[in-house]
Design goal:
Residues 43-288 form the Ppx/GppA phosphatase N-terminal domain. GO terms for molecular function: pyrophosphatase activity. InterPro entries: ATPase_NBD (IPR043129), GppA/Ppx_hydrolase (IPR050273), Ppx_GppA_N (IPR003695). By secondary structure, this protein is of the alpha/beta class. Helices cover 47% and strands 24% of the residues. It contains twelve helices and eleven strands. The chain has helices at residues 45-52, 57-76, 88-92, 96-107, 116-124, 169-173, 179-196, 206-214, 225-236, 240-247, 251-271, 283-295, and strands spanning 2-11, 16-25, 31-41, 81-86, 111-113, 138-144, 149-155, 158-165, 200-204, 223-224, 275-277. The strands form two sheets. A six-stranded mixed beta sheet has the order 8-7-6-9-11-10, sandwiched between helices. The longest helix is centred in the C-terminal third of the chain and has 21 residues, at 251-271. It is globular and about 45 Å long.
Length: 300
């Protein structure tokens, strides 16, 4: 058995995350990814960007502090390699390049700002999806983040279409969404429904993962749309404090889970989809798998 250690940093609009995995390759050809460390810091870069167009100094400092800590953990675990990616908030921040240069100087970590399409492709690379895909059916892969929502159509096991929308949980909470973007979102979904007739959603993101746990689903068990809608209706009439008390959520999750569920229920309603599969994989998982394959191209 051969073991290597890889790391990934995901700088999102709601939170930043560090994932470190041990990747074990066995003589029989099996490859297993085992979590060594995971750290999530809810810095909420999107709160600044979606309202004011730039990242303020307080959040920039918090980001630099967190990234210095992440750099220390990467060194302590002796990772072979790592990659750091920023998504929607950093893409839109007028001072995004300056902030990332400050991060590099303070922590030594170079961060790439990636597109919505690359974000969706990287999450797909995390794996766990191929086992869910029936080549005779069409699926919508839906990733709801803090600043954007990525949707990919998979038909006959292949990507048939993809689109990124500037609709995300932090953006919604900041009242920074454009009605025209909602119309584009709904119109695109209606076209997809008519053209591809998708039968299930594959849900991605911290909020749908939390919903899967709240509904006490087993690892590969799907969520029925009716269950999703019922939970959404229960949560959205509660205050943030009531969600925290009744569902044992931390404050950050209690705030963003409702707008996330709103997006998922919109997708299932417009496309008349009855089930949501949740493989519980994210951008950081995809980054690590792509890194491992880069160093070990024989294992794909």
């Amino acid at each position: 058995m051969n073991r290597e250690t890889f790391g990934a940093i995901d700088i999102g609009s709601n939170a930043i995350r560090l994932l470190i995995d041990y990747v074990e390759q066995y003589d029989d050809g099996r490859t297993e990814y085992k979590k060594a460390a995971f750290v999530r810091v809810p810095i909420r870069l999107g709160d600044d960007v979606f309202l004011r167009g730039h990242i303020g100094n307080d959040r920039a400092e918090a980001l630099c502090d967190a990234m210095q800590g992440f750099a220390a953990l990467l060194r302590a675990y002796g990772v072979r390699d790592y990659r750091a990616c920023a998504t929607s908030a950093m893409r839109e921040a007028a001072n995004g390049r300056d902030i990332l240069e400050r991060v590099r100087l303070r922590s030594g970590i170079t961060v790439e700002t990636i597109s919505g399409t690359e974000e969706a492709d990287t999450i797909f690379a995390a794996g766990g999806l191929k086992e869910l895909l029936d080549r005779s059916k069409t699926y919508l892969y839906v990733d709801v983040g803090g600043g954007s929502t990525e949707i990919v159509v998979y038909a006959s096991g292949e990507k048939a279409a993809a689109e990124s929308f500037r609709l995300g949980t932090v953006r919604i909470l900041s009242h920074a969404t454009d009605p025209a973007e909602w119309s584009r979102f709904e119109g695109w979904l209606a076209q997809v429904a008519a053209l591809h007739n998708p039968t299930a959603v594959i849900g991605s993101g911290g909020n749908i993962n939390k919903v899967h746990k709240l509904l006490e689903k087993k690892s590969r068990e799907s969520i029925r749309t009716k269950e999703l809608t019922t939970l959404y209706d229960r949560l959205r009439v509660l205050s943030v404090e009531e969600r925290m008390e009744q569902f044992y959520l931390n404050q950050s999750r209690a705030e963003v889970i409702v707008p996330a569920l709103g997006i998922f229920t919109d997708v299932t309603r417009i496309c008349r989809i009855a089930t949501v599969c949740v493989p519980r994989q994210g951008l950081a998982d995809g980054i690590i798998r792509l890194l491992y394959r880069q160093y070990n191209p024989q294992y794909r």
